[in-house]
Amino acid sequence: MRRSKGNNRGGRRPSRQGDRHKEERRNKRPFAGESSHGPPEERQSPSQLKAVERLLSGIGVPEQTPFSPDPFQLEALAAIEHEDVLVTAPTGSGKTWIAREEIRRLLRQGKRAWYTTPLKALTNSKYSEFGLEFGPNNVGILTGDRKENAEAPLIVGTTEIYRNQVFDAMRSGEQVRTDFVIIDEAHYLADEDRGHVWEETIILTPPRIRLLLLSATVGKAEEFAKWIEEVRGTGVRVVKAGPRPVELRSAFMSPGQQLYPLFDDEGRFNKAIDQFKHERGQRFRRR
Question: For the whole model, what pTM was predicted?
Answer without folding.
Answer: 0.72
